Amino acid sequence: MALDAEITDAKTRFDKGIAALEHDFRAIRTGRATTAIVDGVRVDAYGSLMPLSQCASVSVPDATTIMIKPWDKGLLKAIDRALTEAALGMNPQNDGQVIRMILPPLSTERRKQLAGQAKEACEKHKVVMRNVRRDILKGIENRAKADKLPEDVVKKTNEKVTDMLKAAEDKAEKLLAEKTKDIMTV
Fold this sequence. Notes:
Low-confidence stretches: none
Order of helices and strands: HEEEEHEEHH
Strand order of the largest sheet: 3-4-6-5
CATH superfamily of the largest domain: Ribosome-recycling factor
Distance between the termini: 51 Å
Number of domains: 2
Mean pLDDT: 88
Strand content: 15-25%
Number of strands: 6
Shape: elongated
């Protein structure tokens, strides 16, 4: 087909949109502990800001605890300070060897807020994917005019891109439903 590059580009960009949505969902807290909660924390170590994962091992020993074990014991205070400043809604508990962060139980109101955040993230990504479709369709029209492609080829390609968008939006909605279920599960 004459417009295969545009279709491939659309698929790639829709897939990237879904991957970005999944990444955003990982940062939204559910009732269970996950290492993604501390992914954005940066520690002032060795004279520069480093991601927490580069100066400590982060694990989840049980459903409500995140355990952080620094590779260099001298970084314990810096990691403690970075976690406190990150305002994650948890207080780090430093025992001199490891730092434990206990997730407090979520209230029903907080669960609803988090579900709302997930819905907002999903809508934001769906808007971005619609904008991608608009840009791809514009590119198809421009290429069709330049290459004098038949109308039926252009129409089929537009329909294919629109179907790909619909599939990506359906996947986003499915991911949102799963995330909302995770959030609302006590």
